[in-house]
């Protein structure tokens, strides 16, 4: 590296569903305008193939990916949503290594995702990113039962799938007191 090159930055935003992670990422993308390349997993089709949308009705165009895109080369700002879905069979490669290379090349990368699944098991991708993040912002939602701060995502009905797209039809945010395993 020459004296003019510098390492970028990795910012990780985590929390349960309904915590505002996508809204925070959309705000980051908007702050950087056309300099930001926004990525989402191709697996996540809830809001359309080329959009990240938040419950606050903000939206941003995104590139749906199943592997690291050529379009990311040389970009100085990357914003990535739902990174917990970027694992096989939904993603070819190692997203943590891909992000690490982008940061080493000088990019500011802001990544969002669920820190745990509906059984409160950590996602390996998030654990690995947390270990190398320059900043880690942990958001909380409001418990769907009591309105207290919620740190967990609860699944209403057991489907046998760890990675499953859904919204309030399938998931709720829950506090420690009200979190339960899904009904069978």
From TrEMBL:
Positions bound to substrate: 171
Catalytic activity: thymidine + ATP = dTMP + ADP + H(+)
TM ranges: none
GO annotation (BP), single: DNA biosynthetic process
Record: active site: 82 (proton acceptor)
One Pfam family hit: TK
Recorded GO MF terms: ATP binding; thymidine kinase activity
UniProtKB keywords: ATP-binding, DNA synthesis, Kinase, Nucleotide-binding, Transferase
EC number per UniProt: 2.7.1.21
Keyword Nucleotide-binding belongs to the record: yes
InterPro entries hit by this protein: P-loop_NTPase, Thymidine_kinase
Similarity remark: Belongs to the thymidine kinase family.
Protein name in the entry: Thymidine kinase
